[in-house]
Write a structure and sequence with these properties.
- The protein is α/β, with parallel strands linked by helices.
- Helices cover about 45% and strands about 20% of the residues.
- It contains ten helices and twelve strands.
- The strands form three sheets. An eight-stranded mixed beta sheet has the order 3-2-1-4-5-6-11-12, with helices on both faces. Strands 7-10 form a two-stranded parallel ribbon. It has a two-stranded antiparallel sheet with strand order 8-9.
- Strand 11 and strand 12 form a beta hairpin.
- Helix 1 crosses helix 10, helix 3 runs parallel beside helix 4 and helix 4 packs parallel to helix 5.
Amino acid sequence: MDIKGKTALVTGGATGIGLEYVKELLKNGAQNVAVADLDARKGENSVKELEAEHGKGRVIFIKTDVTKTDELEEAFKKTYSTFKALDIVINNAGILDDGRWELMIAINVNAVVRGTLLGFQYMGKDKGGKGGVVVNIASILGLAPMAGCPVYVGTKHAVVGITRSFGLPYHFDRTGVRVIAMCPGVTDTPLISEAHHRQHTSMGDWGDECGRELDSLPKQQPENVAKGMMHMIKKGSNGSIWVCEGGKPVYEVQIPDRQAMKVE
């Protein structure tokens, strides 16, 4: 997909990697971007800065709690009614907090599913749309286990499986919407730097182990992930899973399918 002239919606786009996605989309020629985020102050300030650089009317902020069905639906509705188009959806909102695991599942999994379905609704050819791309944000921890944040790891494994399944031809042939996933490595954001403080659960204090495990992995800046995201949107095949870690270029990973087993 050529990003030039396209309209995008980014959840969790007010800060961190999400904001870098928004910046890179505009640098790559996106016509309009909607920033959907719970933090109104940071969201509105980010939009003002982006408008100063790229011009008025190209970016809007929509206060959105992605765990609330009506608010996420309204974010899509407002994006489409404002810009009369939607081509790219990045389901980026996420938290790392096993101490609030039910909320984390609601944000990291439920909202990703709902965002994908809304992407189909607004972009699907079977709904009168032109097709498009949905990018779901998983993690390298969606490809391997980790003791210090087991529920977070589970949510990101779920995102990988959801993406691969929505990325099968059955869905694309109907909608014309590609579904792909980004798995960032450890990135310099508050989600990572404050993780060990949040891993206090009723089952014990996992914070030190979480911090130790995260510290053992290669680090990178958010800008590197955002550049990798642009490559994925332009070149990524439907259902593909991509990793961006250690400041290196993004690359696609191949996950072997389990062969059907004969039941004796």
